[in-house]
Specification:
GO terms for molecular function: serine-type peptidase activity; triacylglycerol lipase activity. This protein is α/β, with parallel strands linked by helices and about 270 residues long. It contains 10 helices and 8 strands. The chain has an 8-stranded mixed sheet with strand order 1-2-4-3-5-6-7-8, sandwiched between helices. Helix 4 crosses helix 6. The chain is globular and about 50 Å long.
Length: about 270
């Protein structure tokens, strides 16, 4: 029985890795340059897509604690959502280990990416009023931050273009950056109140889906439950799905099908998927 279970686990891991390897962006587009640092959007188009169409879109931000990570983390999700008719984008942003930056720059780049996508909606063939932001862990923080935070705007951005997404899809996201056990407080203590999504929820917060493992050692269930409560108190929609026994980063492992089923159901309820 143990041998059979091990075989199932190994086959599942192989299939997951194979799916990621076969998911390749249709194009990469430079959206921002800071000095000699060039940041790109990795774009997955629906089959037969052209600039004459106005589909919904999703912009994913990878996780990695604002320290590292890769846009390929969400290649599989992007490939699958593109096959369902959405333009799916995986955004690069600056991280500490590569660029020596702070969490501030992560959010600034996230806002720049959202503004670029919205201002280039016509050439991308997307509806500027149906742009979703998504992400996992610290990438979930960036997605929530571009939706809720007023500050952290790049000086070269066109501030007349809103970075706010029309919906959020978040996998084990960082919501709380406060002194009460919030993630990364030691790195953002000087500006945590302006930086923490949980402390900046307002009535304009977009509809949000949160997918969370119950054994996440970085993001307690109590945090996402409190976030959902605060969202609903403000009059905003927040769907929370808990996965019993799963830890951090579970969504790209053995819960891929289950989590993507919830994502597709949520997006369909908003008219972003057929």
């Amino acid at each position: 029985m143990k041998t059979k279970l091990l075989l199932i686990v190994v086959v599942g891991m192989f299939n997951c890795l194979q799916a990621v390897e076969t998911a390749v962006p249709d194009k990469e587009i430079v959206y921002k340059q800071v000095g000699d640092v060039v940041l790109k959007l990795h774009v997955f188009d629906p089959p037969g897509h052209s600039g004459t169409k106005k589909t919904s879109a999703v912009v994913f931000f990878f996780g990695g604690g604002w320290l590292g990570g890769s846009p390929s983390q969400f290649y599989r999700q992007s490939h699958d959502l593109a096959s369902r008719g959405m333009v799916a984008i995986c955004a690069e942003y600056r991280v500490k280990r590569v660029h020596g930056t702070s969490p501030r720059e992560c959010v600034k780049d996230g806002k720049s990416a959202m503004r670029w996508v919205r201002s280039h909606a016509e050439e991308l063939g997307i509806d500027p009023d149906r742009i979703v932001a998504g992400g996992g862990s610290a990438g979930g923080h960036i997605a929530a931050a571009v939706a809720l935070l007023d500050g952290f705007n790049d000086k070269d951005d066109d501030l007349s273009v809103s970075p706010r997404p029309n919906a959020l899809v978040l996998f084990n996201p960082v919501f709380n950056n406060g002194p009460d056990g919030g993630y990364g407080y030691d790195r953002v203590r000087d500006y945590w109140q302006e930086f923490s999504p949980m402390h900046n929820i307002d009535r304009d917060a977009p509809p949000t889906l949160v997918l969370q493992g119950t054994r996440d050692k970085y993001i307690p269930v109590s945090t996402v439950e409190q976030y959902k409560e605060l969202m609903e108190q403000s009059g905003a929609r927040c769907d929370l799905v808990l996965y019993e026994g799963d830890g951090h980063g579970f969504f790209n492992e053995f819960r891929y099908v289950e989590t993507m089923t919830e994502v597709e159901r949520f997006l369909a309820s908003l008219g972003c998927l057929q």
